[in-house]
Amino acid sequence: xxxxxxxxxxxxxxxxxxxxxxxxxxxxxxxxxxxxxxxxxxxxxxxxxxxxxxxxxxxxxxxxxxxxxxxxxxxxxxxxxxxxxxxxxxxxxxxxxxxxxxxxxxxxxxxxxxxxxxxxxxxxxxxxxxxxxxxxxxxxxxxxxxxxxxxxxxxxxxxxxxxxxxxxxxxxxxxxxxxxxxxxxxxxxxxxxxxxxxxxxxxxxxxxxxxxxxxxxxxxxxxxxxxxxxxxxxxxxxxxxxxxxxxxxxxxxxxxxxxxxxxxxxxxxxxxxxxxxxxxxxxxxxxxxxxxxxxxxxxxxxxxxxxxxxxxxxxxxxxxxxxxxxxxxxxxx
Length: 333
Ligand code: BTN
Known about the structure:
The chain has 333 residues and is an alpha+beta fold. The chain has helices at 9-20, 27-34, 38-50, 74-77, 99-108, 156-173, 226-229, 236-240, 246-267, 270-279; strands at residues 54-58, 62-67, 90-96, 116-122, 141-147, 178-181, 185-188, 191-202, 207-216, 286-290, 295-303, 309-312, 318-321, 325-328. The chain is built from 10 helices and 14 strands. The radius of gyration is 21 Å and the shape is globular. The chain starts with 8 loop residues before the first helix and ends in a 5-residue tail after the last strand.
């Protein structure tokens, strides 16, 4: 658990302002929380501004964090985090083939639960089912979290669905109407905005580590993703019409993710399954599912306790699909 006494006053001020979101936090509240004079709070705010933080000050209302430096290192993230473990250690890299590969190596070398690899660019970003993840430099989020859940490997898909819920919730908190397309694509306006790739090292009865790789299109223009990806993709900037502070989004995502992972560890899959159902654009739709072996058409009725898609076939039978791609034949979103 992070010890708040180790944080500097500047980091604490940033933390309080980040918690306030779009709201103002009064100078008096800050000085009470920190045990500092109003003048001392003002001096710290000035010093943060020099470091690139944009903090609005309005008399009788207080301070509001408007912009943080557009970097994703511990320096920017730590003060913004609400987590105990997730993201408290960040391996911030410039360009790597894939953050999942780096995280798998770190995990094999003994890295702890909650350590995260973040890169500004990936040259061979990996997507699901052998696809690639286009990862232009310095505009999006490419991260891989090392997790050590006490679970048998057959239950690993639950971690991915848990992450999809946290991701959709964070995007909704950021002002867009995000939905999950089974199993774990996150979409806005029917276009893909984020994806998850989970990799695993396990014995037959116990997971050693999971690497949870998350890519979110934050501030890229869709054209930056290339002609193959662009038509079916969007970014948070395109959906909201303005740039997103990447560090704030990342810290918020880690907060949601840790909450949902803790809930999963405490209460099992049932509450996650319930949240997933509510956020899903797939359920109730007529879909075409492509698996490694075949194509199935039917109505997506539910996900079961393993995260498999429960498909009602035209003849009335039911098929459960654990891995595949879904195309909505008559989509509503
Ligand atoms: C998908 O196909 O939807 C999954 C995309 C996952 C992309 C992320 S970006 C960070 C991490 N590193 C990778 O190489 N892939 C994942």
